[in-house]
Amino acid sequence: MGRGPRGAGIDQSIIAESPFLRNHFGPLRAGDPPPRGYHLDVPGEHMEDGVHMDHPLQLDALIFGGGITGLWLLDALHRSGHRAILLEAGNLGEGQTIWSQGIIHGGLKYALKGRPSRASRMIRDMPMRWRRCLAGESAPDLSCSTMRGEYCCLWSLPGLRSRVGLLGARFGLRVRPRPMPQSERPDPLRNWPGPVSRLDEQVIEPHSVLAMLADQHRPRCLQIDTRSGLEFLHDAPGQVTTVRLLNPETSEPLDLAPQRVFMAAGSGNAQLRRACGLSVHAMQLRPLHMVMARGGLPRMNGHCIRSTAPWLTITSTLDCADRIVWQIGGQLAEDCVDMSSEDTIARAKRDLSLAMPDLDLSSTSFSTYRADRAEASNSTRRPDGPVRILEGNTLTLWPTKLALVPMLTDQVMGDMPAPAGFQNNEDHLQEWPRPTVALPPWERDVAWTDSHSAGRAST
């Protein structure tokens, strides 16, 4: 069986920008298209030729990627009677899901521009869809997951365009903002001179939702190590017949024969597509430079509007030491992609002082992290909605936004063949390691700077 060089032929720009690909596949070299049997491995750690199961495990579906898309799809497949397994090379949610702020958007960004669009029409029903799941009224049942908040505050900086944007939000959203009495506002907005609205878009705790779905489907989630053996056998580009694995702890082989393969690995989709003989140019990465703040902050979630865009988007949660942590995104995170952490923090402090003059940052520490949003390629624009590409029996998935994951799953399930009724002995899967949920960025070993110093780290 031929073997390709590690990561052969993948677009260097995608690798350079993607932490997932750098961590899992290392520096990549240009090369020819992969042969029909292709390994994702490293030199000296090849799977032995001919070492595989006599009887592959027959599956209706095999999912690569344990973020919110993969786990939501796994839940839907299992409930419909399909035999499905999810494979995760790192931690569940690593990357986009665990980096996200958790807001279940209903189209605010589009409504602010005052023009109805296909994107706004696609997303406007998502808050109610998620609300039913979070209340346990619809599947998957997420009623035991932790919430960051039931609503977001909405306010704008002075200016005609900002006021016009807020007017568009009032008329362009299915979940419309309503005036927020001064007594109900969070402390930093209590004395804000302009209007403050309540927008009933819930804010989930991504780690909690991931953990809840993972607990329900632990027997069907397997940890794999792409560096020690992941091999695709395919008859044609995207037409996968067998996926060969090695147990990362025991080196026992496992052959899987899926009727359909789903790639839901975010930025990792590029390397997976390459391994199946498919183009990596179907994907683009849109970077963000997010800010985190902790210490002396209140609980709040909200959007500060400037002109016709969310200038600052703030969500809050508790860290392991019960400190309130803010994630700060919005236009700030897009504008600061090419800036250093120090300059980004300085910009964030200036913006916060304008958006909330009463906010006391004297005891607040800051840090930043970089996040890549993996999306289907669509020139330089973000796709309007979820994207799925079927090539052979391989379906590559990009939800585009967290809120659109249920819609993407509905689309996939609508095209899914009926369960084949496979009867497999899966006892040997009990010995496989299971993936754990990724840590959120504020729980990692990152440098924090206090409010008076841009260069002094704190812990």
Number of helices: 13
Largest sheet: 10 strands, mixed
Estimated share of beta-strand residues: 25-35%
Oligomer: single chain
Let me know the CATH homologous superfamily of the domain at 12-96 and 210-284 and 377-431: FAD/NAD(P)-binding domain
Which terms summarize this structure?
13 helices, FAD/NAD(P)-binding domain, 459 residues, elongated, disordered N terminus, alpha+beta, single chain, disordered C terminus, 24% helix
Describe this structure in words.
- There is one protein chain.
- This protein is α+β, with helices and mostly antiparallel strands.
- It has a domain at 12-96 and 210-284 and 377-431: FAD/NAD(P)-binding domain.
- Helix content is 24%, strand content 27%.
- It is built from 13 helices and 21 strands.
- It has helices spanning 12-17, 19-25, 68-79, 96-99, 108-111, 118-123, 126-134, 160-172, 206-216, 269-275, 331-335, 341-355, 405-414, and strands spanning 37-41, 57-64, 84-88, 147-149, 152-156, 178-179, 196-199, 203-204, 221-223, 228-236, 239-246, 253-263, 283-294, 302-306, 309-318, 324-329, 365-376, 387-391, 394-398, 448-450, 457-458.
- The strands form three sheets. The chain has a ten-stranded mixed sheet, sandwiched between helices. Strands 1, 2, 3, 9, 10, 11, 12, 18 and 19 form a nine-stranded mixed sheet that branches. Strands 4-8 form a two-stranded antiparallel sheet.
- Strand 2, helix 3 and strand 3 form a beta-alpha-beta unit.
- Helix 3 (68-79) packs parallel to helix 9 and helix 3 (68-79) packs across helix 13 (405-414).
- The radius of gyration is 23 Å and the shape is elongated.
- It starts with 11 loop residues before the first helix and ends with a strand.
- Residues 1-39, 41-51 and 454-459 have low confidence and may be disordered.
